[in-house]
Design brief:
The complex is a heterodimer of chains A (157) and B (61). With 157 residues, chain A is mainly α. Chain A is elongated, with a radius of gyration of 21 Å. Chain A has helices spanning 5-25, 28-37, 44-67, 71-95, 115-134. With 61 residues, chain B is mainly α. Helices cover 56% and strands 0% of the residues of chain B. Chain B starts with a helix and ends in a 22-residue tail after the last helix. The chains are: A mainly alpha (157), B mainly alpha (61).
Amino acid sequence: MKFDPATLVRCLLGAIFVVAGALKIGAPGDFHTDLAAYAIPLPDFTLRLIAVAFPFLEIFCGAALLVGYWPETVGALAAGLCLGFVLMLGQAVLRGLELNCGCLGNIESGWFQQPPVALARAALMLWAAIWSWCNPVMPARPPRLTSRADLAPTQTL
Amino acid sequence: MSPRGIIGKLGRALRAVSVRRMAVLLVAAVAAGLGTDWLRGDGRLIFPRPLPVFTTTPPAR
C-alpha cells in the first residue's frame, strides 16, 4: 500500500474535528460562555445558535474528512472553520483577552487552552486544511475499456 | 511553487466547491443542534425552558 501524506493529514484533521465537536456537544452552556468571553459584537441569540449548532458542524465535517466524502466541499468547509478559529483567536491575542479558547470543551483549562497556544494550533490546522484541500487524493480507478481490443494482451512473453 | 501557482490552485479548488453540498451540511448541523437543544429540557439555550411543575398534596387529616 502506497503511503499518502495527504490522506494522513486529512484523516488527522477529521479526527481532531470529531473529537472537538463531541467534547462540546454535552455542554453547550459552557461553550456559550467561552464564546461570550471573546467579546465579539454579535447578538446573544447568534452566539447561542452557534453554541448549539457548531459542535454538530464540526462532527459532520470531521466524519466527512475521515471517510473522504464530498472532499472538494468539505475541504473548503474545514479550511473556512480553521480560518474562523485563527481570526477569533488572533483578535483575542491582539486584545490581550484572558480566556479559555473553548476548542475542546471544558476538559482542561490549562496552558493548552490559552489563546496564544490555541492560535498556534489553529494556524497549523489551517495550513493542514488548505494543503489537504488543494491536494485531493483521487481514488485509483482502473483504466476505462472502450472496446474488446483493449482486453487483448499488449505484450507477449 | 510560486505565489501565482498557489493562488491559481486555491482558485481552482474554490471553484470546485458545491454551494448545495455546503448548504446541506450547514442546514443539517443547525437542525441537529436545534433538535438536541429541544431535547435538553432544563439545559436549553435556544428554546424556552419548561416551566417547573408543582404538585400539591392534600393535608393529612
